[in-house]
Each structure stands twice: as structure tokens, then as C-alpha cells.
Amino acid sequence: MTGTVRADPRAPGGGGVELTAADLKILGPSPDFPITPKEHGTAFLFEHRHLWLRSRRQVAIARVRHEVIQAIRDFFYERNFVLVDTPILTGAIGEAAGHLFATEYFDLGTAYLAQTGQLYVEAAAAALGKVYCFGPTFRAEKSKTRRHLTEFWMVEPEVAWNDSDDNMKLQEEFVAYIVARALERRKTELAELERDTAPLERIRPPFPRVSYTDAVEKLKALGSDIAWGQDIGGDEETLLAKQYDRPVMVFNYPRVVKAFYMKENPADPRTVLNNDMLAPEGYGEIIGGSQREDDTFAHSGFGLGVERTVAWICGIPHVREAIAFPRTLYKLWP
Ligand code: 4AD
Ligand code: MG
Questions:
Q1: What is the pLDDT of residues 57-109, one digit of tens each?
Q2: I need a labelling partner for 110 at 20 to 30 A (CA). Which of 36, 101, 168, 332 fits?
Q3: Can you say whether the dihedral through the CA atoms of 55, 61, 65, 67 is positive or negative?
Q4: For 2-11, 14-23, 80-89, 254-263, which range has the lowest pLDDT when averaged over its residues?
């Protein structure tokens, strides 16, 4: 269509302009476009993901994701972190042996798709001080929850000399920065998504911090049957996070439920110097981080999952809509 563009505040979508058409040419026919204004099931829509992506809601989500990723890069650039790209094919286990995608690697045995870039940025932090990696990571987990993908994007900063407290301070500043940027530059998209932005306006440091031990006591008081030593599961995360109006950082978990690289807590060797950050409104863990076990220099870092963060900011129920072509237990196409 060609014509004259003119300002009109009534234009749908908040774009503020309308086109008065003067000419129309058909470049290609689109008979039987499968997505109609009626309600479609999610399975149907995901089978037509390449077309579904054109809908206003999906466009809005894509733009918020783009903004979140730009904010992530700007935050670290402004603070003089150096981006270090880490391998996707690796010979080592990054997190948990049970959740690896494996493939044959010539004469060298088995290669795995990276679960994390952390062990590489730990080495790079020794050279460069403040570093981060940012890329796709893979978990062969048979989780069917609305928070799990088999391929997701994770940003992982690692900082020489930071202890666990410094690590939590960096996390709250980082998350507040990302949310503020989305509110500032993606108002139109958040309105399209009918996102109530009031809870997001409250996301300012400091974030509440609660030890794992206190969190277990709080959960018991709220009716959970969790016992000290057990991991905090998805439902309990939601229950706990509901008590706060900002993301809550739960620190010093039992060693047995966490990864091998976390630094033992000298004040209580049953626990480690780590924390998870739980987003409000039922979105659960968006960050996992820790001080690292070291026999050289103290260092700490964390990983933030992009899709969980985007899902939370957009207020959408499932992480699979937070990435253009999601990979889940049931989804390898399109
Ligand atoms: O807690 P995780 O497993 O931590 C790590 O991978 C560390 N190596 C990070 C670090 O310290 N450098 O994962 C970090 C975050 C989670 O909090 C979550 O946001 C996201 O990555 N995540 C997932 N997102 C979607 N689908 C999955 N299956 C995810 N697993 C983790
Ligand atoms: Mg975790």
C-alpha cells in the first residue's frame, strides 16, 4: 500500500499515525491464512509459529526481549565488563551430569552442549577482572513446567574479588536496570500486552534478602511441609516470593542441593555462599549465583535466564512465548 501518512492520536496500537491509501498492489496471495481472529489452541499456534510471530502480541514480546538483551549489554558495557564468548561444545560437565545433551566428537569421545559458560568465565575473570558471557545454554531436563526450556539464553557475569554479598548487590542493580529500561522504552509494547506496570515500578534496590534457613521457617509457617536440607521447589518459590513486592534473594542453601563449584560457608559448612533470586508474581527463580570454591583468588558470579526475565516483565504465563522458536521436551519444530 502506498499513500499519505498523517498523525492521528486515535490510531490503534499507540503508533499515532495513519495511512490514507492511494494505491494497493498484491505481491503474493495469502489464501487460507491459518490464524483467524477466533481463539486458537496453543499447540495449533506453535505449529504455525512462523505466522503467529506476526501477531501484535508476539511482536510486542519480541520487542521487549530485544530491549532486555540490549539493556543487559549496556549495563555491563557501562561498568567496564569485558564480553568473553565461551564454547557451546564442551568436554566437561558444567552443572549436573544428568541433564546433558551429548554428541560424538571425532576421536575425542563425547562432546556436550554447554549447560553454562561459567567455568570458562571464571578463568577469564582471572585475566580481565570483570567479565561476562552471553549465549544459548542447554539442559536435557524432562521438565514440563512453564519455566523450563531445553535451550535458553543465559547471561553470566563473573567478577574477581567479589564475595557473595557483592554478588547479590550486583544482581539487584542489574535486575533493577533491566526493568527500568523496559518501562522507559517499551511502554507501548507493555500496554499492548496489557501488563500492569505498577508491580514493575516498585523494582528498585535494595531487594529483600533471606537466608535459606529463615526461608524454610517462613515456608513452614505458611503451611509448606519442607524440611531443612531439601531444595526449595517451584511451588515453594512462588509461595515465598508472594511475601515480597520485589524480587527476593535467598542465600546460603545446603551444600547437598547445589552445584559442586559453590564455596563452602566457613560459618556453617553444611551450607554454601550462594543465592537464588526469585521474581515476584509467581515467576520463580530468575538468577542462580554464588561465590566460587577457590584456592587462588575470591571470585563470584551468577546466571540470569533471559526467557524467565522476559516472561516476568511481559507478564506472560509461559517462557515458551518469550523466545521466537522455543525448544522444549515436545518441541523441535519449526
Ligand atoms: O541456576 P542455574 O542452573 O545456574 C547456572 O547455570 C550457573 N552456572 C550460573 C552462574 O553462576 N554463572 O541457571 C541460572 C538461571 C536460572 O536462574 C534460570 O533463570 C535460568 O538460568 N534457567 C533456565 N531457564 C529456562 N529453562 C531452563 N531449563 C533453565 N534452567 C536455568
Ligand atoms: Mg538454579
A1: 999 999 999 999 999 999 999 999 999 999 999 998 778 778 999 999 999 99
A2: 332
A3: positive
A4: 14-23
Q: Which of 18, 15, 16, 21 is nearest to 6 (CA)?
A: 18
Which phi-psi region, left, alpha or beta, contains residue 183 (left: φ > 0; alpha: ψ -120 to 50)?
alpha
User: Quick one: pLDDT band at residue 116, thresholds 50, 70, 90?
Assistant: very high
What's the pTM value of the predicted model, to 2 decimals? 0.96
User: Distance, CA 229 to ligand 2 centroid (Å)?
Assistant: 16
**Interstrand relation of 17-23 and 82-83 (parallel, antiparallel or unpaired):** unpaired
- Per the document, the length of the chain is 334
Residue 276 CA, closest ligand 1 atom number: 17
Q: Which ligand is nearest to the CA of 286?
A: 1
Q: What does 37-70 look like in DSSP terms, one character per residue?
A: SS---HHHHHHTHHHHTTSHHHHHHHHHHHHHHH
Which DSSP symbol is given to 295? S
Q: Which residues line ligand 1 (CB under 6 A)?
A: 95, 116, 118, 139, 141, 148-149, 152, 154, 156, 285-290, 301-303, 305, 307-308, 319
Atom of ligand 1 nearest to the CA of 306: 19
Residue 183 to residue 174: CA distance in whole angstroms = 15
Dist CA 200 CA 188 (whole Å): 15
> Are 40 and 47 contacting, i.e. CB atoms less than 8 angstroms apart?
no
* Neighbouring C-alpha atoms within 13 Å toward the C-beta of 212: 25
pLDDT at 245 over 70: yes
